[in-house]
Each structure stands twice: as C-alpha cells, then as structure tokens.
Amino acid sequence: MTIKLGVPSKGRLMEKTFDWFGARDVGLSRSGSDREYAGSVEGIDGVELVLLSAGEIPRELAAGRIHLGVTGTDLVREKLGQWEQQVEELALLGFGQADLIIAVPSCWVDVDTLDDLDAAASAFRAQHGFRLRLATKYHRLVREFLRDNGVADYQLVDSQGATEGTVKNLTAEGVADITSTGDTLRANHLKILGDALVLQSQATLFRSRTASMNDAERATLKTLKTKLRLER
Ligand SMILES: Nc1ncnc2c1ncn2[C@@H]1O[C@H](COP(=O)(O)OP(=O)(O)OP(=O)(O)O)[C@@H](O)[C@H]1O
Ligand SMILES: O=P(O)(O)OC[C@H]1O[C@H](OP(=O)(O)OP(=O)(O)O)[C@H](O)[C@@H]1O
C-alpha cells in the first residue's frame, strides 16, 4: 500500500535528489549504516524510498516495480526503447547536467566534424582492414545519432567506465561519453567534434506508466505531486 520512489543509491545524484525533495518538505534519507541500502521518507505517509543504481532505475520504472524514479534522461533514453510509452517526465530537477558527445584524439587535426569523422572512418578501414572503434556505454543513442548523421563506417566497442582511457589503451580510436566540465576529455587528450552533441541530459523525476496503483496509492501520488509543486 505504498508508492515506491527509486533514487540513486550513492554519489552526486543521491545527495542532490535528497536536497531537491528536502527543499519541498519531503525528507529523504539513507537509514542504517553507510553500506546499507535502506531509506526513509518523512513529511508524507505512504511513500517508500528504494535506493538503486542510477542505471537500473529506468528498467525498474518500465517493469512497474517502482512508481517514481529519479535518474538521468540519458539513462532512460538509452535503456528504454520508445521510452515515452513507458515513463512520463514529471520534472527536470536542474542538476546532473551532462552532455553525451563524441570525441577523438586532439592530434587528429583534420577531424573536427561528423563529416570529417565519416571520411576518417573510411580511410581508417582502408588502411587497417577493420572499422574505426568508438568506445561507449550508450549503444542505442550513439547508433541512432550516427545513422541520422550519415556516419556508417565505424564499430562500437562496449565500455562501462573509464571510457576516455580506451584510446590510450588502444582499444578504441574515439569515444562517445558523458561530459560536464570536460576535464576528463582534456586529461586524456581528446577533443569533442563540433557537431556531435548526441544528447543533453539532466537528473529527472519520472513516473512509471506501467506500475499499478490502488485508490489509496493514487491519492498518495496526488498529495506528493502537490507537495512537490508538480500539479498542473
Ligand atoms: N561528470 C558528470 N557530471 C554530471 N552528471 C554526470 C556526470 N557523469 C555522469 N553523470 C550523470 O549521472 C547519472 C548516473 O551516471 P552513473 O554512470 O554514475 O550511473 P551508474 O552507471 O548507474 O552508476 P553505478 O552503476 O555506479 O551506480 C547519469 O544520468 C549521467 O548522465
Ligand atoms: O567532463 P567531466 O567533468 O570530466 O566528467 C566526465 C566524466 O564523468 C563520468 O564518469 P564517472 O565519474 O561517472 O565515472 P565512470 O568513468 O565510471 O563512468 C563520465 O563517464 C566521464 O568520464
């Protein structure tokens, strides 16, 4: 008989999410020890806090196992096909801003745009006998973006973390990853292609379109939305 609210279990998104709800008189906190993934909610009855990996929240929303969830728009668009049919965006939270971009080595002086990348990819294949490799964890978004922009002669290699390091490690020629300050790209001698902004992401509160609710839970959701100033 509760509304389940999924929130990232650690790091920048968790703390800023707690602050965002706290500013609206809904107190979220992690209970128990630092390592225990249990949480509590104050200021409203009938809402349960579920601490999850940011990357798992899209799937939990789509499966209807949580009613509400906070995660990045990038993760929802990457992990859920036809995401709008599965979740509704209730509020952009104004933090966790990051751009999904494509970057190549800074020393590739002739490659500054997607057209340049396309030409470089063809030349790379002719020279090396295999396709230019882009390391990413955003397979769906990058594939769609490059298809729409006419870049074909490449392959994606999976990288679930420390993606910018793959170029130095010679497992990829370029990367498609999230950046905010640009420090990680610069430190790894990579430059962003001028016209390769795949997506602008920020932390967002989503509602599951598939989670079932009884009348009491529907009333709780309404009360919560009023507290959060989301009622239109
Ligand atoms: N440097 C950054 N600045 C701002 N937001 C970022 C940055 N890097 C990632 N993010 C955002 O934070 C969210 C969570 O990303 P992260 O990669 O930490 O999730 P995750 O892979 O689920 O983490 P984990 O599985 O380790 O809990 C994403 O929506 C992403 O866009
Ligand atoms: O532009 P910047 O401010 O330098 O931030 C970009 C970095 O932040 C994210 O990594 P994260 O810290 O989440 O670690 P990860 O490599 O394990 O994904 C992202 O994958 C970049 O590596």
A few lines on this structure:
Helices cover 33% and strands 32% of the residues. It has helices at 11-22, 57-62, 73-79, 83-86, 114-128, 139-148, 165-168, 183-187, 215-227; strands spanning 3-8, 27-31, 38-42, 47-52, 68-72, 87-92, 98-105, 132-136, 154-158, 174-179, 190-201, 203-208.
Total number of domains: 2
* Lateral arrangement of strands in the main beta sheet: 4-1-5-12-6
Compounds present?
adenosine-5'-triphosphate, 1-O-pyrophosphono-5-O-phosphono-alpha-D-ribofuranose
Largest sheet: 5 strands, mixed
The 3D shape can be described as elongated
According to CATH, the fold-level topology of the largest domain is D-Maltodextrin-Binding Protein, domain 2
H-E order? EHEEEHEHHEEHEHEHEHEEH
Distance between the termini: 25 Å
Structure description:
This protein is an alpha/beta fold and 232 residues long. The protein has 2 domains: 3-96 and 203-227, Periplasmic binding protein-like II (D-Maltodextrin-Binding Protein, domain 2, 3-Layer(aba) Sandwich); 98-201, Periplasmic binding protein-like II (D-Maltodextrin-Binding Protein, domain 2). Helix content is 33%, strand content 32%. It is built from 9 helices and 12 strands. The strands form 3 sheets. A 5-stranded mixed β-sheet has the order 4-1-5-12-6. Helix 6 (139-148) links the parallel strand 8 and strand 9. The radius of gyration is 20 Å and the shape is elongated. The protein starts with a strand and ends in a 5-residue tail after the last helix. Bound molecules: adenosine-5'-triphosphate and 1-O-pyrophosphono-5-O-phosphono-alpha-D-ribofuranose.
